[in-house]
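Troubleshooting: if your tokenizer reports a length mismatch, compare against these two reference records.
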Amino acid sequence: MTEQHRSSTARGRAAKRFGAASLAVAAAAGLGLAGAGAAQALGGQAASSVPTCSTSGLTASFGQKLGGGMNHEGVVLKLKNTSGHTCNLRGYPGLGLEDSGHRTLSSSVHWGDSWYAKDPGKKTIALKDGASVAAVISWTHANTGTPDARDAAYLQVTPPANTTHKTLKFPAWVDNGRLEVTALATDVHVG
């Protein structure tokens, strides 16, 4: 190999390494990482050691019941951290309906604004042990007793990033099995 070819090859490898490092730094900057955080992200280490909240480390319950005109009904859903440590939650709870025999009923869930509350949007919440978050669930019941309505007895609640659920008593008629739910937040504003 000639001296010129070796020099050219070495420059090419150095340029590739420099380009890859520059791309990684640019990506870190685009994600809003800086200083030690960028170094951790580039080094492959997790920026946070706080685990995601698991279904088994949470309790589910209902808070304030919501009523109103035009056949609307709703409830505040609460998830409380009982894991013994801080954990993260982000996003919307999964919901499903069950009949009195715990058989799954057909249903659909809309994530976003509900009849009673504006959606606060997805935010990562570091939930301390003993602390709670809430979401607002709403539905209509205009077709009570008809084939277009689901006669629910229970509500399945799946925390974000989980595949198992909690089950709550939920005696309600739900038109077409359609539920609306806001993202989980530390404070909900019902209006």
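Reference record two:
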Amino acid sequence: MIGAAKHKAFIFGLLLLPALVLSACVQSAIQQPLQQPKVALVLGAGASRGFAHIGVLKILESNRVTVDMIIGTSAGSFVGSLYAYGYNAFQIQKMALSLEKANIADFTVPDNGFIKGERLEEYINTLTQNTPLEKMKTPFYAVATNIQNGQEVVFGRGNTGTAVRASCAIPGIFRPVVIDNRMYVDGGVVSPVAIDAARRLGADIVIAVDISADIDTRQPEGTVETILQAIGIMHSKLSAIQLAKANVVIRPRVGRIGASDFDKRHEAIIEGEKAAIEALPAIHDLLVKRRAAAGQSADSVSR
């Protein structure tokens, strides 16, 4: 009798086992938080036109569009580092409107560039209280170019001011930056709008700000304007390759603002605001759809 009872209990246990396993799986799926899509904001290169990024940030911020990471190239790294540190867009605008060339440009005898860039590095480090890249409030990455092998380099750790300085080191204007015995220049040489880098870093949604598409058609005057306009044309051609991989592209109309038009920063900010407002419906629609899809996926597992 005892043997028969044990046999029946064993059979009952075998029959019950699949139900217990299924119940545990369902409970586990229910308890798991929804995996929201990771949103990256990619801020492109463009010298003085980069003030347009501030206008974009103002609109995104006021409409509660949050991002999970910021990737900046050249001027985009300058603005992006301050926002990633924790300044809001209006604070950055105030800084920008009071910024003087002397704050960031330390002219020297031309030798592989006539701006050293040390003052730019110091400016960023002072404003971010020497916070390294890996400890920013929002994950931030600065894109530069290894001038010795032509490779895109994405800085995500180390001295923030040095990384931004390297990302902004426009060839012929700023001296190249040496980090760990390697020489770096402006990231826009190879990646003006670093969408591929954002994807490699895990971004599901990429919002890109392209300030290179609207080319300045004026005849340049002087060495600096000629260099900047030539680089701007290069940025425009290179950007087209990566922009097709972005989910949303914001394009401020800054063609009338020359790359060296430091005094037109307010106009650039306004154009950034206008372009971001135009892009808001697409951004909201995209975020709603992706987040809904993430929720449906989790619900289907829990059922």
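Descriptive notes for reference record two:
- The two ends are 42 Å apart (CA to CA).
- The longest helix spans residues 265-302.
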